[in-house]
Amino acid sequence: xxxxxxxxxxxxxxxxxxxxxxxxxxxxxxxxxxxxxxxxxxxxxxxxxxxxxxxxxxxxxxxxxxxxxxxxxxxxxxxxxxxxxxxxxxxxxxxxxxxxxxxxxxxxxxxxxxxxxxxxxxxxxxxxxxxxxxxxxxxxxxxxxxxxxxxxxxxxxxxxxxxxxxxxxxxxxxxxxxxxxxxxxxxxxxxxxxxxxxxxxxxxxxxxxxxxxxxxxxxxxxxxxxxxxxxxxxxxxxxxxxxxxxxxxxxxxxxxxxxxxxxxxxxxxxxxxxxxxxxxxxxxxxxxxxx
Amino acid sequence: xxxxxxxxxxxxxxxxxxxxxxxxxxxxxxxxxxxxxxxxxxxxxxxxxxxxxxxxxxxxxxxxxxxxxxxxxxxxxxxxxxxxxxxxxxxxxxxxxxxxxxxxxxxxxxxxxxxxxxxxxxxxxxxxxxxxxxxxxxxxxxxxxxxxxxxxxxxxxxxxxxxxxxxxxxxxxxxxxxxxxxxxxxxxxxxxxxxxxxxxxxxxxxxxxxxxxxxxxxxxxxxxxxxxxxxxxxxxxxxxxxxxxxxxxxxxxxxxxxxxxxxxxxxxxxxxxxxxxxxxxxxxxxxxxxxxxxxxxxxxxxxxxxxxxxxxxxxxxxxxxxxxxxxxxxxxxxxxxxxxxxxxxxxxxxxxxxxxxxxxxxxxxxxxxxxxxxxxxxxxxxxxxxxxxxxxxxxxxxxxxx
Lengths: 291, 402
Known about the structure:
Radius of gyration of chain B: 22 Å
Distance between the termini of chain B: 47 Å
Strand content of chain A: under 5%
Strand order of the largest sheet of chain B: 7-6-8-9-10-14-15
Number of domains of chain A: 1
Low-confidence stretches of chain B: 1-7, 21-43
Family (chain A): Belongs to the binding-protein-dependent transport system permease family. LivHM subfamily.
Mean pLDDT of chain A: 89
CATH superfamily of the largest domain in chain B: Response regulator
Low-confidence stretches of chain A: none
CATH topology of the largest domain in chain B: Rossmann fold
CATH class of the largest domain in chain B: Alpha Beta
Order of helices and strands of chain B: HHEHEHEHEEHEHEHEHEHEHHHEEEEE
Strand order of the largest sheet of chain A: 1-4
Radius of gyration of chain A: 19 Å
Helix content of chain B: 40-55%
Number of helices of chain A: 11
Number of strands of chain A: 4
Number of strands of chain B: 15
Number of domains of chain B: 2
Distance between the termini of chain A: 55 Å
Structural class of chain A: mainly alpha
Number of helices of chain B: 13
Transmembrane segments (chain A): 6-26, 60-78, 90-112, 132-158, 188-210, 265-284
Largest sheet of chain B: 7 strands, mixed
Membrane topology (chain A): Multi-pass membrane protein
Oligomer: heterodimer
Largest sheet of chain A: 2 strands, antiparallel
Largest interface: A-B, 41 and 37 residues
Helix content of chain A: over 70%
Strand content of chain B: 15-25%
Main location (chain A): membrane
GO biological process, one term (chain A): L-isoleucine import across plasma membrane
């Protein structure tokens, strides 16, 4: 029974990683940028949701939607202000800018509200379902459901809508896409909007599930989600989902075996191994280097 | 990873520059004081400056600000009653942001710029240790209100930190009290320990608890660890649950403990949970929820429900100023100021070495958190209180003498 419980724990953790990893992977897929500020958008999402619930006294779903919308706007602003003018600069310049944006967001939040943590209010009714001695809280089922719905929605947007088609086209070849009459700037903004909205949703879900939020909470989950994205194959949407869920389960298994202090190390060992053995990840395409 | 590196680089440059600035500022103020002559020595003679190097923001801000509030009340009372030998006390507060390096910087600032007579050291043991060298170097008597690790006053090699003292009891004592409570009051046989591996405080408690519970005939069926800033404890708790303990000891600080208690109850762990003074914060109740905290216990320095007369007098005075009930950190902060005051009075001067000697010779000093004498390792010998959480409130359970 212990192992089924551990699997449930791992999937709950993994679905949060997966939601954040999607934003990493989408942005990388379209402009080849590792957006290190993504973990901080996740943090902002958690705080927006917190203030929405605690101050305006609204329920979980309205807070989730408000947080997603505001994070989408924040994501577009970050892209327009910080990354757009660097689109033709070297990739290292864009990467360093991303780190700068990340620190800017973290310390702006600390400046305005201090570094002390906040406890998420209990917005969802808590009941436990006992199946063969495995205790599953209604919240973790709901979280999994919300995650799955958002992922299906994302698949729908990417594969069935016009903007999704434009995203795939820009990701494949921005110049050719522009020649075909696709507005590349708007498509990139849309990608940032969708990715950031998912990070915002992950922030609210994290808050409800784990209770404690603080201004530097985005750093470690951000890095873990990055690992998940690389593991699944950066640039691949199904890869981010599978990568996130597997990373959550792997971390849980490491703790379950009694090596809880090695949990973070295990995640980074995965990153190193995947970069050595299969840099394109599980679902990544092998691209030939153009000479 | 890249972020961490840049942060470190930034921090080291910042630290170096602030050290230089501090040194320069030190020179400056010395220059002006000699130039000012008589007038500046006049101002120093009618106030006694006590520095407070505390966690006013950051991870354990709740401890630092509680100590500051308690200390302020004590300073107010002493000043209203005429001060120390006619001199008013001035409290100089510096925020160390709950970080070791900032605690050192704050101590340097208090020693060199503010030229304080005595210091209230940070709340957590690690931060106190980071200031010990400065206290010894500048010969400023430093008293921590709540740094409970043994190596705060005594270094690993057995030498004493001459100028470092404390108002609280030490960790091994709390661990022993918890173990005796578990076996005698709760009848626990198979216990689990889940400790914060990143803190000397928690590791010290876990060690003494384990030794005592085994001496009492109990068995440790699971021994697990976590690291500060973790948020997901479910996998390890599931592992603990499968070992089926009838008591779980969780030494650590409220930020993680709040989440551990909540997640433990979510997984259906019904066993009594117990911790120490690191749990004592209103944030714990917010994080864990009042219901999850039922059937949990802590050892602590004092209880506001203790019927003793002096304690109730303090509780009333505190409520009058802050309109809340004082917790242990409030009481310890309050006591720390009186402890320093008592030593300065007995020393009869504001000379660092004289005060240091008076602190070390303290006998049967009666304060809110108990009556104590200081032993040869600068530790007060005093009693501990066991509290139980009932619907989110701490309820006085019993008092244990050393």
